[in-house]
Amino acid sequence: MSADTVVVAAGLRPYGTDGAAGAHSLDLDVLRGRIVCLVGPSGSGKTTWLRVLAGVDAPAAGSLHILNADVSTLDAPSWRRLRCRAAFIAAGAPLLSVVNALDNVMLPALYHRLGTPDAIRMRAQETLEFLGYVSSTDVLPAYLSQHQCLLLAIARCLMLSPQLLFLDEPFHMADDIYRRREAEIYRRLARERNMTIFVATHHLGFVKHYADDIVFIHADGVWRFSGWQVFMKAPLPQVRAFLDVAA
Q1: How confident is residue 18, by pLDDT bands cut at 50, 70 and 90?
Q2: What is the CATH number of the domain that holds 22?
Q3: pTM, full prediction
């Protein structure tokens, strides 16, 4: 395994909705600094696969190594350490509703004692500035937009200096301006900070312009493609049908 390989899946299969192993397996190795997009028809299992690849859910079969750690062998302390390095943001970017924006960002670093409260506060403010967050940090999440809440969730993860970031359907805002800003954040994290970004998404504009690797998930199988051009020209009828519908 290369030192730059951060995720290796071999014969990986998730559980299906009936509790049995999924019908299709995936072999995947991902290098540092790549953007990997999981795409497919609605209901095909993108979230299921993302959670398994992130180690959030146990696989039904196969093996998974994240940052050279065999996920199946980790004890509780090792798992907590790995979770700091491989961050997962669920759909909707859930935040703690009873504390303000800045405290939401600071809490993980405070919990792990990654500095003094003043140093953590300063780092949180710098992280929000990096992400382009310009709203008040004193308000509760309920008073913020979806885009603002997503930025807070990303900032909260970045406070722990992860090497991987897994995002489930982050492009839920309708405004194309915010979508472009968000896409640029993921590009900068991958190119400037050498993070590996996994995104389960319906937003094919992002996939077309930013994906280094594409995992296509379909009821008939799971396939990997090295970028948009390869994906777009794939001879698979399932891909052709998906792109025709999405166009």
Answers
A1: low
A2: 3.40.50.300
A3: 0.92
